[in-house]
Design goal:
By secondary structure, the protein is of the alpha+beta class. It contains 7 helices and 16 strands. Strands 1, 2, 4, 5, 7, 12, 13, 14 and 16 form a 9-stranded antiparallel beta sheet that branches. It binds calcium ion (CA) (2 copies).
Length: 508
């Protein structure tokens, strides 16, 4: 099967990162260990073994495998943990170190969570050191008749003695069949009662095999303090295989828990005074060279790929993004929009002013009408003509206002369309034409008003400014001019009216 080069490269880089990360970690752990040994001369020398360990945040590779470990069954490795079993019924899973452990004394620190929604869970989790990898089987997901030692975190109370969850240590020489019905109590070398399910912090189990003694210490997950261990059990004169594999397995039954392992850290223990394993052995020279070579190859591949990509996509690199500069089209559209906005605002303002004038006009008309009503129907014919003219003015103004309203709508819709689909379409041009027509009709109305306003010869005495010649093309300036004319006209009317009133007073 051909694996894509990209994937392979990524996998390689992950492996390198993992190895580097674990190695760096080991330096840190080693320092801690050295610190401990200086305070207690009897304490063993402790050295981290990255080939038998895993932990986040780069626990698994992109292909789902764990460096130096194999997983089987329902186990699901992810970046920061291995879910040995999900909380589904009858699941089994396990992870096992690929390499055989060849040193005699060790300390394993396992961080895990057992969590489920029920008050009771099942079945439990096993930590193993056995001469063979027990990839599959009935004992917490691992093989029965194992040769070595199993530390079981038994969630389910099979014998009904209300003594679960419990931690049970069972040794086997490869012939014993695990006593599930009694929760292994008949075979237990050591045991302690601890509830390890659903704790706020992960559970930590520190299992030490040193000078033929096996000690199990538990951090109960109630505190974030990682070194807060409690004694669980200790077995002296225990003989376990000299060489073997580490494993973690879990199983669910009718009830189910998530069994998640966050890390497995292994330390090699050496008695003080004994010759420490050579520091060089941590990463043998040939292995170092191999990784170095792999890294260089990876770097070369990466550079090559980069070059190829640049060749294939010359437009992607080396050119500033197009958004930096404005194209001619974009600029035109922007300018049109800005112009549109200005027109829109001007028309709006005109509309408002027109409404005000209309109100004023209405007020005057009502005042005059009242006046006429008071004077009787046979009033001055001049007065009737004034009223008629006023009403005409009112009507024209109203028309003018409606026209403006229509224009406003048109401009608004054009802007909306422009925003949605860009400018320059046929519809837009049409809208512009319509607006133009409306504006022409407005102009006509204004002309009409100007012509009709002087109702009698008295008006002629007043000098109103000349109407400016209207250029063929319309602009917002013309609107302003119209409004000015309208205002002047209005002023003229007021003057005229006051004169009329003065004249009427003379009659009576
Ligand atoms: Ca059980
Ligand atoms: Ca039990």
């Amino acid at each position: 099967m051909a694996v894509p080069i990209g994937k392979r490269l990524v996998a390689k880089s992950y492996l390198l990162i993992s190895v580097l990360f674990i190695t760096l970690k080991s330096i840190g752990c080693d320092n801690i260990a050295s610190g401990a040994s200086t305070s207690d001369p009897e304490a063993p020398h402790r050295r981290f073994e990255y080939k038998y360990s895993f932990k986040g945040p780069h626990l698994s590779l992109t292909d789902g495998s764990i460096p130096f470990w194999i997983h089987s069954g329902n186990a699901i490795p992810s970046a920061d943990q291995v879910r040995i079993t999900p909380s589904l019924r009858s699941q089994k899973g396990s992870v096992w170190s690929k390499n055989m452990v060849l040193f005699e004394s060790w300390e394993a620190v396992v961080t895990f969570r057992v969590s489920g929604r029920g008050r009771m869970g099942a079945d439990g989790l096993g930590i193993w050191f056995t001469s063979q990898q027990g990839l599959d089987g009935p004992v917490y997901g691992a093989a029965d008749k194992w040769n070595g030692i199993g530390i079981f975190f038994d969630s389910f109370d099979n014998d009904g003695k209300k003594n679960n969850p419990a931690i049970v240590v069972v040794g086997n020489n490869g012939k014993l069949v695990y006593d599930h019905q009694n929760d292994g109590t008949t075979q237990a070398l050591g045991t302690c009662l601890r509830d390890f399910r659903n704790k706020p912090y992960p559970i930590r189990a520190k299992i030490t095999y040193y000078k033929k003694s096996l000690t199990v210490m538990i951090n109960n997950g109630f505190t974030p303090d990682k070194d807060d261990y409690e004694f669980c059990t200790k077995m002296d004169n225990i003989v376990i295989p000299k060489e073997g594999f580490f494993g973690i397995s879990a199983a669910t039954g009718g009830l189910a828990d998530d069994h998640d392992v966050l890390s497995f850290l292994l330390f090699r223990l050496t008695e003080p005074g004994q010759q420490k394993p050579p520091a060089e052995a941590e990463i043998p020279k040939e292995e170092k060279d191999k990784y170095q070579e792999e890294f260089e190859n990876f770097q070369q591949d990466l550079d090559k790929k980069k070059e190829e990509f640049q060749k294939e996509h010359p437009d992607v690199l080396g050119e500033p993004s197009e958004s930096t500069y404005e194209s001619v089209n974009d600029r035109e559209i922007r300018q049109v929009f800005e112009g549109q906005n200005r027109i829109h605002l001007e028309i709006k303002q005109l509309h408002r002013q027109l409404a005000m004038i209309l109100d004023e006009q209405r007020r005057y008309v009502s005042v005059i009408t009242d006046e006429v009503a008071k004077k009787g129907i046979n009033a001055d014919p001049q007065m009737s003509s004034v009223i008629a003219t006023q009403q005409e003015v009112l009507k024209n103004l109203n028309d003018l206002r409606l026209s403006f309203q229509e224009s406003l709508k048109q401009v608004g819709s054009v802007q909306h369309q422009g925003n949605a689909a860009g400018l320059g379409t046929y519809e837009t041009v049409q809208h512009f034409n319509e607006i133009k027509e409306h504006l022409h009709s407005v102009k006509r109305d204004v002309d009409h008003l100007v012509q009709r306003s002087p109702p009698n010869p008295a008006e002629k005495m007043l000098k109103c400014p000349d109407f400016p010649p209207i250029p063929p093309c319309l602009s917002t300036l013309h609107f302003v001019v119209f409004v000015v004319i309208q205002s002047v006209l209005f002023f003229c009317y007021i003057m005229y009216k006051s004169q009329q009133e003065a004249a009427a007073k003379k009659f009576f």
